[in-house]
Amino acid sequence: MAESRQYTWNGVDRPIIPYKTYTSPIDTTPHYTTGSQNILTTSIGFAEKRPGFSNILGTFVAPPQRLYLWERWDQTIYLLASIQNGNTTLVQAINLTLTAQLGIANPQAFTVFSNTGSTIPFDFVVARNLLFFGNSSTAGTSKFQNPGSMFKWDGGGTGGAGTANVSGGVVTGGTVTNPGTGYGVAIGGNVTAYLIGGGGTGATAHFMAVGQVTSITLISGGNGYTGTPSVFIVGGAGSGATATATVSSGSVTAINITSTGTGYFAAPQIIILGGGGYGAFASANLVFGLKTFVVDTPGSGYTSAPTVIVDTGLAGTTSSGQVGVVTTWGMESPHTPPTFSFQPAIDGTATATQSGGVITSVTLTTAGFGYDPNNPPTVTINDPTGTGAIVIAVIDPRTFAISYFSIVSGGSGYTAPTVAIDPAGINAYTGYQWGYTWVTEYGHESNMSPLSINSSVFTHQVVTVNAVFNPVNGLGFDARALNLYRTTDGGSNNPQQMQLVNAIPSSPVTFTDTVADTGLQISTGPALFANTPPIPCGGFVYYNSRIWGFWNNLLFYSGAEEISNGVPEMAWPGFRDDLAQSDGNYQRWPQRVFGLGYTQDQLAVGTAGNFWQFSGDSLDTFRLAPLLVNRGVRTSTAINSVGNSVMWFDRSQQVWTSDQGEIGIDIRNDLLSVDPSQAFMGSHIQDKWHWIWLFDPAHHTLYIYDIDLEQWYTPWIIANSGCIVSGETSPGNPQLLMAIGSSIYALTANAYLDAGSQYSEKATLGLLSTLPEGDSVNRNRDLVGIVGQLEMETNGFQPVIIEQLCDDDPTAISSIWVTLSVALAPYRRPQGTALQKWIYKSEQTITNTERAAFRFTWNSGTSAWRMYGYNYNFKRSAQ
User: Fold this and answer.
1) Which residues pair with 280 in a beta bridge?
2) How far apart are CA 140 and CA 563, in angstroms?
3) How many Cβ atoms sit within 10 Å of the Cβ of residue 813?
4) Distance between CA atoms of 641 and 634, rounded to whole angstroms?
C-alpha cells in the first residue's frame, strides 16, 4: 500500500449531493448523475436506500387514472379513484377509516358511480361537506337532453350506533342506540352491521335505514291554550310518526315524539290544533338513519355481546344506503309551468254568546273554505253596546277552513253580539302568475320553472296550483320539496321579485293558494339563470369560496355573493342549456385551458400556451393578467399547489414554482422523456420528508425535489406504477400513495419493497479531480494524477459493485468502467458493527488521469444500507 503522506485526499463527508444531469461531463462539483436511481438523501446528512411503496391500502377493479383523498367532516377518510374499465369510467372508493377499524388488510373498493361510454377521467373537489366530481364527457351538449357528467356524493351515513344481544351463545337481536344520519334513501335501505369480538363466530346482521322524524322543533308556543292540543304530522311521503304536545301557562312548551315513523322522503308538516289556543308552530326534523337491528345469521359460541360497527361504505350500492347517495351536482330547473284552477270560496259564519256582557264562546256555524292558515281572517264581534272582545279564528291547514275560535279577550258591555268574519279566498284585479322551484335536502334551490299563464281578473276564489315533481334524469335526484312563488296582483314576473307563497312537500304537488298579497312571505325567488347547474367540466379547485373548473377554452366558476337562494357551490350563474347566455360566470381564453392552481391571492390558470393569474375576490374585483408566456401546461394533473405557491410541469418539459421560478434546471435532460400531457405534479410533507414531486407514469419514474436541500434526488423507479397522490390516510398521518397495478401502496419508512417486489439502487458520481493543485491550473500544465484508493463509511451494508471511470463521460453508455478490488478493512481503527469503513484499491493499470468517477451498485434486497461518506486519495503521476 502506498504511504498516505504521498497522497492528497478528496471526497464527500455528507453524500447528500444533488442529482444533476443538465451539466457538463467535466463538471467536478460533487453530484450524482445519469444512471443513478432509488437513493434517498435528506438533510439528516447521509445517503440511503429509498423507502418502498410497501403498505397496501386497498385494490380497485382496474388501474386508477386519478387518486383523491377526502376527509369528511366526521373524520372518515375515503380514498377515491377514477378508473377506466372497458368503455366505462368508474368512481370507486375505499373507506380507509372503516377498513382500519375492521382490520381489513387489503379491502376491495366499492363503486360510487359509473359512466358508460365515457373515457375522460373524473376530477374531484370538496365543498359543503360534500364530494363533487365531474368530467367534460358531455360538454357542449344540451343539458336538458343529457344530464351531463357532474355529480356529488355525501359519503354515506355517519354517527349510527347500536348494540347486539346474546343469549345461549348466539346473537338474538340488537338495539339502535343512535340512528345517525345519511344512511337511508327515499325507500330506506340495508346497512351492514359488523359484529366484532364476543368470543363467537359466524353472526351477521344489518340495520334497516329509513327516513324518520326524530324530533320536532317548537317555533312558537302560541297563546290561550286551556287544554292539550292535538299534533298532526302530515305529508313527507312517509307514515307512522306521532307526537304529543306539552302545555304550560297557556302556551305549548314542547312537542315530544312518540313514534319516529318510517319512509319519509321530505320533512312532513306539523299541525297543532285544539286546546282552545292559537299560534303554536313547529317543524319536523327528518333524519335518514338507522331504524331496526336485524339478525341475518345468529352464529355460535358467543360468551358476550360483540361490538357493533356500522358500515359507512365498505360494500354495497348507492341504492342500499351503504355508500350514500350520488346525485347530480346542482339542480335542473323544472321544465313544466304550473297550472291552476279555481273554486269559489265559502265564507265562514259563527255565533257569539255573552254572559254578564263578556263574550264567553264563539260557535262555528259554517267552517267556510279558502282561508290562509298563516293569516287567519279578522273576526269582529259587533254589538251597539259592547267593546273590547278579541277573537282569533284558527284555520285547519288541511282543509283551509275554520277549525275553532280562540277568545283572547271577552271584552265588556255586550248584550246582543253578532259575528262578522272577513271573506275567504283571494281576489285579482289585474292578474297573478305562479312559478316554482325544486329544493334539495341540502337546501339548494333550482332556477324558476316557466311561469303559468296570467290568471286575469277574479274575485272570491280559491286557487289550486299544480306543479310537477319528477327528476329530469334517473340518477339520484335529491329534491325534497317545492317552493311555490307568485307575483303580486299585476306585479313583476321577474323571478327575483316574485314572493314565496309556501314550501310544498314532495308529495302531493298541489297547493291551495288562499294567500293575499299582504300575506306573501318576504322571501323571493332566485335571480334569472342564477341557480343553473354546472356546465360539464373538470380540473377543479376550490378558491375564494368558489369551485372553479374548465372545459376547452372556457373557465367556469360557481356562485358566491351573487347567489341569494340555495347553495352557492351548486349554482353556476348565467347559463342556459345551450351556453347561449353571454353574461354567465365564465372567462373565455385564447387557448385551451389545461390546469388550475391557486395561492392566497390569485388563481393560476394554465393554458396550452401561457400561464395566467386571475386575481380578486368578487365579481367586481376579478382581474386577469399573464404570469408567464410560453409556459403553459398540457394536463390538469401537472399543476398543483403547496403553501402559498403553485407548481407545474410546463409544455416545454420544465418544472416551475410561482415563488422560485424554474426549479428543474439540474434535471432538464431527464425531463425531456416526460410527456407533459401525462405528468403528475404535487407535494408531500411527512416527518423529515419535505418534497415537491414529479411523476412520469409512462416510465414509472418519480422525481423528488427536496425543499429543505433545494435539490433533486436521484430518480426513483417504481415498476408498474400508474398515478400518485399525497394526503392523510388517517387523522394526522400524511402518506404518499402510489397506484401499482390496480392496488394502492403507501410509501413506508424502513420498508424496502414496492408492492412486494425488490428494487436495486445505483449511485453514479460525476467526475472528480485527481490533480492536487486544482483542475484548471494543472490541466493547463498538462499534469496528470494517480488514484490510490477509495474509502467508504457505511452502516455495514456495502455496495456489491464499486467501479471507477477515468477521463471519460460517466453518462455515456460507451464509457468503460473498471471494477475496483475487494474491500479491505482499515488498518489503524477498529471496525464497528453499525459504523464501518471499507477500502477499495484502485486498479494499478489506471495510472495517469485528470479526473475520475465512481459508481456504486447495491443488491436488489431489503437491506437498509446507508452511506455516510466516501473519500479517495490521489497523487501526481511521475512525468
Assistant:
1) 221
2) 24
3) 7
4) 17
Helix (H, G, I), strand (E, B) or coil at 511: strand
Are residues 321 and 191 in contact, defined by beta-carbon separation less than 8 angstroms? yes
The three grid cell numbers given for residue 25, joined into one nine-digit string = 461531463
| 661 Cβ neighbours under 8 A, 6+ residues apart | none
Q: What would the grid cell of residue 107 be?
A: 379491502
**In this structure, are residues 531 and 585 in contact, taking their beta carbons and an 8 Å threshold?**
no
For the chain, state the CA radius of gyration: 38
Q: What is the pLDDT of residues 693-740, one digit of tens each?
A: 999 999 999 999 999 999 999 999 999 999 999 999 999 999 999 999
- DSSP type of residue 859: -
What's residue 143's pLDDT?
42
Separation CA 681–CA 46 (nearest Å) = 26
Indicate the burial class of 588 (C-beta count within 10 angstroms; 0-12, 13-18, 19 or more): exposed
**How far from 86 is each of 63, 92, 596, 758, 836, CA to CA, in Å?**
12, 15, 29, 31, 55
Residue with grid cell 263574550, as numbered in its chain = 359
Q: Which residues pair with 794 in a beta bridge?
A: 836, 867
Total residue count of the chain as it appears in this document: 879
User: How does DSSP classify residue 446?
Assistant: P
Above 80 in pLDDT, residue 777?
A: no
DSSP H/E element including 386:
none
Which residue type, as a one-letter code, is found at position 493?
A: N
**Among 570, 566, 604, CA closest to 585:** 570
Q: ∠ CA(499), CA(500), CA(504), 5° rounding?
A: 160
Cell numbers 355460535: residue: 300
**How far is the C-alpha of 124 from the C-alpha of 135, rounded, in Å?**
9
DSSP string, 448-472: PPPPPPP--SEEEEEEEEE-----S
- Distance in angstroms (rounded) separating the CA atoms of residues 827 and 374: 101
- 457 is written with which cell numbers? 281578473
pLDDT in tens, 342-378: 999 999 999 999 999 999 999 999 999 999 998 999 9
Residue 146 pLDDT more than 50?
no
Q: Identify any residues that bridge with 98 across adjacent strands, giving them in sequence order.
A: none
For cell 419514474, what's the residue?
701
Say how far apart CA 284 and CA 217 lie, in whole Å.
6
| Residue 741 burial (CB count, 10 A) | 16
With beta carbons less than 8 A apart as the criterion, state whether 613 and 601 touch: no
Any idea which residue has 492536487 for its cell?
772
Q: Are 59 and 722 in contact (CB under 8 A)?
A: no
Q: What nine digits make up the cell of 343?
A: 273554486
DSSP 173-220: EEEEEE--BS---TT-EEEEEEEE-TT-B--EEEEEEEEEEEEEEEEE
Residue with grid cell 290544533, as numbered in its chain:
273
**CA 683, 685, 690, 694: dihedral to nearest 10 degrees?**
-20
Q: Where is 141: in which H helix or E strand?
A: none
Side chain identity at residue 837, one-letter code = K
Cis amide linkage into residue 423, ω under 30° from 0: no
Whole-number Å distance between alpha carbons of 314 and 334: 35
Q: How far apart are CA 585 and CA 198, in angstroms?
A: 58
Of the candidates 554, 526, 527, the one whose C-alpha atom is nearest the C-alpha of residue 539 is: 554
Give CA–CA dist 70/324, Å, rounded: 15
Query: Of the candidates 138, 22, 1, 123, which has an alpha carbon nearest to the alpha carbon of residue 68?
Result: 123
d(CA 391, CA 352): 10
The cell for 822 is 475487494
H or E stretch covering 23: none
Mean pLDDT of 142-153: 61
Tally helices (H) and strands (E) across the chain.
3, 63
C-alpha cell of 744?
394502492
SS3 category, 481: strand
Block residue for cell numbers 365498505: 314
703 forms bridges with which residues in the sheet? Answer: 694
